[in-house]
Amino acid sequence: MKHRTQVGIVGAGPAGLLLGHLLHLVGIDSVIVENRSREYVIDRVRAGVLEQGTVDLLCAMGVAEGLHARGLRHEGVYISFNGERHRIDMAELTAGKAITVYGQNEVVRDLIDARAETGRPLYFDAEDVGVDALDSEQPLIRFTHAGSQHEVRCDFIAGCDGFHGVCRPSVPEGVLEVFERVYPFGWLGILAEATPSCHELVYTHHERGFALFSMRSTTVTRLYLQVPPDEPIANWSDAAIWAEMLTRMTTSDGWAPNIGRITQKSVTPMRSFVAAPMRHARLFLVGDAAHIVPPTGAKGLNLAAADVVVLAVALNEFYRRGDAASLDRYSSVCLRRVWKAQRFSWWMTTLLHRLPDETAFDHQRQLADLDYLTTSRAAMTSLAEQYVGLPWEVALLSSTLGS
Ligand code: FAD
Ligand code: DHB
Question: What local confidence, expressed as pLDDT, does residue 399 receive?
């Protein structure tokens, strides 16, 4: 089967779905091709923290009904070390900005529903997905679906297929420069049927390693533990997980997470990664396909959304006015934000985790860093403005959606 579209989108994660819907809102046609099932994509447990800009984007796109009903707005965050929690009042330090806790799977579900309503194509369970003719005027996406072979001829392809996708490896050798750092630890994450014992997140520095208290709703707690990067999840019984969570997180005032039935557990390795430029000919790399951050700063999903805004605005200018200047700037505009998020995520990670080869000096410096962070208004403001998210090109977006 042969198809023709303006923008072919590989991947129906947050980046692909957001891009497809933004393009729909400005009348640009797209085909989305995803190699997993609808259920798999929705059930995959990942991010939970939305920056103010991501929230504003979902609102502007008219897909924020679930977010308004079930999202939890947090105006502060806790940093815990030496057994004490210190609150950073993000809203006060950033003139009223906040983060919203709303699961990535909820965002994805809302966007899949919105896509279905538009009637525009979204193929799940696509097999043998590949991109071709990237250097031509009409690049192609090929895939097999329900036994039939498909070929989508596109003006542009958006590679929204995550870190392990096919788009980035399809760029000819020598075009992309890769910057990478792999960390000597990972996160063991769980979901538990337990009422969150604190209404805001708690990032904990502990001598046995980092731990993070988060949530998904008023009845579900989300927790993470620093573990070795290749730690088999089978090594961790539920009882062992709770014992370690409580050891690391309990503070001297008696605060600890509530315990409940564990409904999901997995281990994620951590890396920092950037491939630049984020474009080759008519292929644009978007979100995790172009960059990965360690999750400590809660930036991955938000960076993907920020890339999408830049690309959608640029595509709109191209189709409305034949002006390719913004498409030409896509990579450099995105990379400025990406590198600042990389720096912040690396800093949060190295501030809060124990490194296997750290010296006594490193450890004391880390504690001094935490002491400074939680007592200096300047340091708290710096964390707060980055955590809620550096300014977005919102004006750009609203003029696009309004046009
Ligand atoms: P993905 O979500 O990876 O989506 C890519 C899609 O492409 C997938 O659906 C995949 O199945 C599909 N695909 C892959 N290969 C192909 C192919 N060959 N053909 C077709 N489709 C393909 N970020 C935050 O902002 N805040 C957080 O709090 C946060 N916490 C996190 C916690 C954990 C444990 C993890 C693992 C990540 C976290 N992140 C967080 C990061 C965030 O989840 C990612 O940055 C985000 O999912 C990126 O979206 P994406 O659409 O670019 O990529
Ligand atoms: C969550 C994940 C993060 O990476 C983070 O920094 C904060 C919260 C979460 O899944 O809730």
Answer: 72
